[in-house]
Design a protein that fits this description.
four-stranded mixed sheet, globular, Glutaredoxin, three-stranded antiparallel sheet, about 140 residues, alpha+beta, single chain
Length: about 140
């Protein structure tokens, strides 16, 4: 059964070969899910290890905007320790450390699922998301905290 909405897979650049292999497996699984018609719309986006605000590049600005969207939808506690925002020194206001892989699902433009994610003491991993999609299980997990 097809999943309504859109899926975005965010992959950090400059990772180790072990992490890169994991990223490749996720990307291949997403490609297969699109080919099978399970996912109608899937986008793969690269992002940096860390993003600064104010941003030096459009990529950093987009990553900070995504982090802020995720915080607004789910709360900071649901994102830790996968994302980490901290004050920066010098002219930068803050730095956001980004996970090696992140998957976001949006229905009608509203964030409905996010992996990795903490909810009620449970870790929702990238692998949990991939398994749920492959099994036809619901993936929605975002609850405003």
């Amino acid at each position: 059964e097809a999943v309504d909405g859109s899926v975005a897979v965010y992959l950090r650049t400059g990772v180790s070969s072990a992490v890169r292999n994991r990223q490749v497996r996720v990307r291949e699984t997403v490609d297969r899910l699109v080919e099978a018609g399970v996912l109608e719309d899937a986008e793969v986006v690269g992002w940096p290890e860390r993003a600064r605000e104010p941003a030096d590049t459009d990529t950093e600005a987009a990553a900070v905007a995504l982090y802020d969207e995720f915080v607004d939808a789910a709360g900071v506690r649901a994102l830790e320790p996968f994302f980490e925002a901290r004050p920066a020194t010098g002219a930068d206001d803050r730095i956001v450390d980004l996970p090696a892989i992140c998957i976001a699902h949006r229905e009608d433009g509203v964030l409905s699922a996010l992996y990795p994610y903490w909810s009620d003491g449970d870790h929702h991993s990238i692998e949990d998301c991939m398994q749920a999609l492959c099994n036809g299980d619901p993936i929605g997990n975002v609850r405003k905290s």
